[in-house]
Amino acid sequence: MKISEVKSTTREQRITPHTHIKGLGLNEEGKAFQAADGFVGQTSAREACGIIVDMIKSKKMAGRALLLAGAPGTGKTAIALAIAQELGSKVPFCPMVGSEVYSSEVKKTEVLMENFRRAIGLRIKETKEVYEGEVTELSPEEIENPLGGYGKTLSQVIIGLKTVKGTKQLKLDPSIYESIQKERVTVGDVIYIEANTGAVKRVGRSDAYATEFDLEAEEYVPLPKGEVHKKKEVVQDVTLNDLDIANARPQGGQDIMSMMGQLLKPKKTEITDKLRKEINKVVNKYIDQGIAELVPGVLFIDEVHLLDIECFTYLNKALESTLSPIVIFATNRGMCQVRGTEDIVAPHGIPVDLLDRILIIRTLPYTLEDIRSIVQIRAKTEGLTLSEDALNHLAESGVRTSLRYVIQLLTPASILARINGRENITLEDIKEVDDLFYDAKSSAKVLAEYQGLYKFKQ
Ligand SMILES: Nc1ncnc2c1ncn2[C@@H]1O[C@H](COP(=O)(O)OP(=O)(O)OP(=O)(O)O)[C@@H](O)[C@H]1O
Ligand SMILES: [Mg+2]
């Protein structure tokens, strides 16, 4: 086996349908540019979402819900992802699709509950007594196993820590050595050890080592100031779901364990309602004491018409809770039956009592010009070049069919062009793939025409 010939694929950039979307494309006053951040047109929906982003950032939106409604391919999913990008990495954003709730192993409401808790962040500020510094030495000391038998056991670990002000040598218990190994600490790393719990956290590599040849991207940090032994404010961003998991399986997430573990009994393996209630209680206490700050994020439920009445009832209740994120729904359905009911027909397949508390944002069909610009952006993202008349043809076809259909023609057309020895996609390529593939509307028409042929003769 030749390992040298195997290429890793991790570095290659994957192009997904929404790669070109980088944000909502709004100016300082919240007005949408006709084209910016990969977005073209759909300006009022983008501006409305800009206001929502501001509300979320100023924490005025918790427990509210929003619905993006519009025809297929009008950019609802793209807008939701742009909202996520505008919010940044500190605000949790949890995307899911309505159909995800249907599983044979987990209850529907359990899936919803888990995603709800993924969308609620908690910023915990704690002042901790720590030993912090650059590791100058790391030497485990072994002794003969006192119980006899073969092998040696660890008696203690000696670690040297250096700061700008001085150095200190610490003798550590073997149990701490395990966490040192888990964090893969080596000489030259900057770490801190919590004095009370012995939890070890690797901050990064000391920048004295910044010139060394490194294959992996490393975070270089300056040599810590002050003494080795000091009080340090530690900020952690976690979601409620992280806390649930950490407490259900005590071996993971040491940092979180250090605060929650004291209150909750370990050795739980399943996230139960009771556990969640206990966690909520502790979280609320921390919020009251000012140790933690609630960061309501976004739960995005795409294709919301796929949820059933049981889920909607649950959502109604969950939105009322004090620990609730902002929920954004998206659907391309108009009037339709609410799933799980026999005869209830409601707008967007959502029961009216839930619909009542939702703000609705419409996405409108695109104009020829918009489609033209979007196709151009997509071609550029996929690294393809199009001739002018090919682009015009796609834009016209997009008005008749759908934006998504014409975007999807790009890749097959580029393959055709390459087969014919060209880099540039021409009108002929586009026409040929347009003949080979069907859009949804014409495919349905064909089936309707030939319906008679598919029936069994009796
Ligand atoms: N205004 C826009 N600017 C740039 N790209 C867009 C815009 N609107 C949609 N797109 C792109 O067009 C494609 C289809 O859009 P999207 O998937 O967001 O539609 P949708 O409204 O979610 O449709 P559906 O109802 O079928 O789920 C995606 O690749 C999306 O990134
Ligand atoms: Mg969508």
Kindly describe this structure.
Belongs to the RuvB family. One of its GO terms (cellular component) is Swr1 complex. Residues 62-365 form the AAA+ ATPase domain. 36% of the residues lie in helices and 25% in strands. It is α/β, with parallel strands linked by helices and 458 residues long. It folds into three domains: 35-119 and 297-363, 3-Layer(aba) Sandwich (Rossmann fold), CATH 3.40.50; 125-236, OB fold (Dihydrolipoamide Acetyltransferase, E2P); 368-448, Helicase, Ruva Protein, domain 3 (Orthogonal Bundle), CATH 1.10.8. The strands form five sheets. Strands 5, 6, 7, 8, 9, 10, 11 and 12 form an eight-stranded mixed beta sheet that branches. A five-stranded parallel beta sheet has the order 4-13-14-3-17, sandwiched between helices. The protein has a two-stranded antiparallel ribbon with strand order 1-2. It is globular, with a radius of gyration of 28 Å. The termini are far apart. The structure holds adenosine-5'-triphosphate and magnesium ion (MG). The site of magnesium ion has 4 residues, from helix 2.
Low-confidence stretches: none
Number of helices: 15
Structural class: alpha/beta
Shape: globular
Q: What ligand molecules are bound, each kind once?
A: adenosine-5'-triphosphate, magnesium ion
The rounded distance between the terminal residues' Cα atoms is 60 Å
What composes the largest sheet?
Answer: 8 strands, mixed
Let me know the CATH homologous superfamily of the largest domain.
P-loop containing nucleotide triphosphate hydrolases
CATH topology of the largest domain: Rossmann fold
Estimated share of beta-strand residues: 25-35%
Radius of gyration, CA atoms, in whole angstroms: 28 Å
| Helix percentage range | 25-40%
| CATH 2nd-level architecture of the largest domain | 3-Layer(aba) Sandwich
Mean pLDDT, nearest integer?
85
Please write the CATH class name of the largest domain. Answer: Alpha Beta
Question: What's the number of structural domains?
Answer: 3
